[in-house]
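User: Sequence in, structure out. Go.
Assistant: Echoing your sequence, followed by the structure tokens.
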Amino acid sequence: MCIRDRCGIPENLIQALVDRGTKDLTIVSDNGGTADGGPGLLLRNGRVKKMISSFLGVNPVFSKLYLSGELELELVPQGTLAERIRAGGAGIPAFYTPTGVGTLVQKGGFPVKVANGTKASEIMSKPRESAVFDGKEFILERAIKGDFALVKARKADTLGNLVFHRTARNFNPDMATAARCTVAEVEEIVPAGSLNPDEIHLPSVYVDRVYQGKNWAHRIENLVFDRSEEQPSAVAPKESSKEQAIREKIAKRAAQEMKDGMYVNLGIGIPTLIPKFLPKNMRISYQSENGMLGMGNYPKQGQEDSDLINAGKEPITETPGCCYFQSSQSFAMIRGGHLDLTVLGAMQVSKRGDIANWVVPGKLVKGMGGAMDLVGSGSRVIVVMKHTAKNQHKILEECTLPLTGQGVVNEIITELAVFKFAKGELVLAEIAEGVSIEEVQKQTGCGFVVANDLKTF
């Protein structure tokens, strides 16, 4: 069964499935929703045998069921998940992708099911076949097809043609094509011929049943507003001034890497602070993995739209010329190298440019989300992060955590230094004002070369 969760959630259909009592479901969903919404309702009621997802999200029930051995979990990079679904609907049995090369996705060995009462693995993921095309390695991924697809659209006509709304399009069109029976929950049903044919997003041939729902919760998981007229009760809690100063220092330096006219993907956390340090006349088009190009700032309180969120599930606004598209096209844009720059955080980076940012085995299972697709795209990758975490090195000889990407990082920016990767070496290119090379050496868990023209920022 294919269900989409983030926004554009078929809330009424999911509740009806819970009420029906169906058990032992295999659910294909980007994430597990919340404890009381989306696929989280099915998880909380013990109806799910296996999840195929890219990200666990903030649902504690999802994590608990998996880590206790009560739930099977197949973690899939988000772009690969979208393409596996798209391929299933297009009659393509398998395809090659660069996403996940050199990681556990390729090598196998990630626990799909934990043995009850232990940390041992009862079922492990299997290695992927690989092949080399034009000197580059790719791995083979198989298509996904479902028995049922539950999707949400803004509008349908009586034939089943669908129109989606803003970022609520996301996985919905892809899911609808890849099932034997697709049920669309919609807000409005209009007579055939009422929709502009040029504005139909999904043709009726993919839709078997249409249901007009009601009483949607319209949840926004991470409610954040424009801080220019900040109301403390309406925004996320402030971090300590010292911590915020460090984050802004990193973001301010990273902003210098932006060039007018760039297409950029910003990860969650520190990267989201970068736009505030850009010149007002600089035009940057920000891409969000959930299907938007041309993201604007956070909205003012009261102007938020649950169908207009970013990949971090935060409300956003539109910029002139923005556009929306489904998840498979979003990741085709990424995987095809059409973005100029990706900026994201990391738990660890190695001196060879490997990055780890998605799992701490046995403790924290975040999922890779779209990170593996972004870093494996061939576009320039900058990591922004604090230099250390809890007095532990984050820049290392070798990553000790499972990799997100192998040899993919071009630059690291921390509060102490800027490192660049050149000719197989980690090069200290810039150093923060008032910081010595000796201090950087002490805080870095590997050797590095100091640039002849070392600069200060």
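User: And one key feature?
Assistant: The CA atoms of residues 123 and 210 lie 38 Å apart.
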